[in-house]
Each structure stands twice: as structure tokens, then as C-alpha cells.
Structure prediction request, 425 residues.
Amino acid sequence: MTTQAPKGTYDILPNNPKEEWKSSFVWQQLEQTAKQIAFSYGFEEIRTPIFESLDLFSRSVGESSDIVSKEMYTFEDRAKRKLALRPEGTACAARAFITNHLDQALPISKLFYIGPMFRYERPQAGRFRQHHQFGVEVFGSSSYLSDAEVISMLYHFLTALGLKDLTVLVHSLGDLECRKKYKEALVKYLTPLKNELSEDSKKRLEHNPLRILDSKDETDQRLLKNAPKLMDFLSNASKEHFAKVCQLLEQLQIPYTIDNKLVRGLDYYTETVFEIVTKDLGAQNTLGAGGRYDGLLKQLKGPDIPACGFACGLERILQTMHNQSISLGKKQTPLLLLFPMNEDAFATALYIANLLRTHNIAVDIDPRQKKMGQSIQFAEKRKIPYFSAIGDNEMNTKMLTIKNLSNREETQVEFKNLVTTLENL
Prediction:
């Protein structure tokens, strides 16, 4: 039996002084910021199962994508159904949109999610086999305004956390017809050079040639230097759509760079694609990414409805905050530790604790019946600022002595005045 977390995973603890970003109070505050940003943009939360039909990801993400071909956790249940732990959130949100007929409820649905995703990858900085994403989806809008809004929202979220030195990369993949023509031109250009390509790119040339554009192999990049540019194959409508997205970003004063090699790793993208990257995470430098995927719902046998969105990796964001010396938040502790000195005081301790808790005052109880000095040390170790012991005298007089553990000053308070006193500490 092993007592280690599985490779590529980790535990989030109440407090992890060695790696603060693995502390639960840090995650709570990060997720709260994400939710506040989402609500401020008019998004509503959606929660989907962490496993789905394997076919969902094969049809949406793409059979030849790295995620489907190399990285998914798949299994059969007892009824021989082929299932997969979700590797990303967009396909799940799209499936939920179709299953629950959300198009019949509103003309536009703006949804967000926060949760774990699973990919069998080589663990390294910023990359885990179980990782967490914050993502948004806009179903029902084909407007370039929605593209610009989700880019703005991701940029807003990252800058609200205090992150600096961010680069916004944008590109257009055009519509399906544009992509088809460009793929033909790219394959025609690369086929004579096939023997010089990396092994991964040789495979992609057959199944997904656009993915060669974001190859990290130096030889591949050298061979691509004179390759045709996707922008030259865009239709007038796609050019206009992309130009208007860029214009809105300029008006919002969001700095961006057009990256002709940005294609994203999932097959469902069309038109606008984008990434926000940092220099502080080495090779895994993408903090969040997204784009438009107008054909995804139809591809999943749903309504022909346009969509766009993004997802960002929360582990990478927290590690970047650490690298940029940005505060990851402050741990919340109870205001008061109650110490019942004998069993007769248990009921009184619970009564006082519940009275204070109903007024949103955090209180904890030490049930161990150790020496008072040990209970005070317990409070100090947890950075609880105030301490009160409850014994026969306190129960008879209905008064508590509240000890300030930083200066050792004591204040006597009647039970009936505890709420007011503690609210003003």
C-alpha cells in the first residue's frame, strides 16, 4: 500500500507553508475572484460530471489531437460503456447545453465552470495530470463583440489578481472553407519536406496539419519560415470579423499581438483564437486560451448555434503569482477558541459557539480537556487571536473572560453581550 498521492497530482491542505499555492485558503480566494468576475460579466455557473462518454471528446476535441490520442484517462464501466475523465470543459458544457435544451430557455447562454480536468501528461512545472480550470462559454452569439468580451474577461481576471507582463496573442482560423483551402496549401508546401519534419509533425501532416504550426521543434519552425500564411486564405467575412475584434481590443486598451502560428490544439475552433501567456513559467507559459467554435454544437448533433469562450489553468496562475511575488491571500482563522474545562461545560461551550456563529463570528472549541496552557498554545499555533475558558464559575456567573493572546489583556463579558463585544474587537 502506498501513502503517496498519484503521480502528477497533489493535496491541497488547510495550510502548506512550503508551497503556499497548495493551501486551501489560497484556492478559496482565487475561486472567489473568478466567480466575482464571471458574475460581473453576466455569466452563470454550470457543473457537469467529471466523466463523460469517450465519444464526446473524440467527436469534439478530435481523434488526432494529442488529448484524445495520447492523454485521456479512459475506462469501461460494468455495462461496457466507454467513458473518459474529462480532459477539458468546453465539450462538457456543450453536451450539457444540448442535453438540457438550454437554447429553448434563452437566446444567449453565458456559462462558467470551475473544476478539475484530467490528462495523462508528463508532470512538469505548470502541468499536472489532475489540474483545475476556470472556463466560460457563450452559446448563441456570432458577434465579434462576444469574442472581444471573453478576451477582455480573461485579461481582466488575470490583471485583477495582480499579474503583470502578460502578452495577449490573437489569430484567426477563418471559417471551415478557409481552413480547408489553407490545409491544402500547407500540405502541398510541407509534403516535399516531410522527411525533415519531427516525428510528431510527420503524423500531423496526415491527420491535422495545422497543429504543425505550433510545433516546438526547432527544425519544424525553420521549415515553416516560408510556409503560406493562414491570414492570406481568409474570406472577406472572416477578415472583417477578425479586424473588428482587434479594433475592440484597441478601444479597450488591451495590448495584443497577432501570432500567425497560433492555432490551438483542439479541432473545434473556428475564426478567432487567442492565448494569454507569461514569461514566468518556462515552456508551459500559457495561462489561458480560447476562441470561437461555431460548429461544435452541430457537430455534437445539437442545434446549429455559434459559440465562443476560454479556459485558464489555475495551477499555472497561482505559480505565476508566486514567481511574481504577488500575495496569494491571507488565511482566515476563527476569532475565538473556547476551552471547556470539564464535561459539564460542553453544552455551554456549544451554546456560546452557536450563538456567535449565527452572527457570522467564527469560533472553534477545543474538546481535549488538556491543561489550559496547552489549549492556549493550540490557539496560538493556529493564530487564533482570542481565548476563553469555560468552567463552573463562568457557567454560574454567565460571564466569560476573553484573553487577547497578543498582549495577554483580559476582558470580562456577560454572555448576553458577547456578540456585540466580539463584533467590535
Observations:
- The chain has a mean pLDDT of 92.
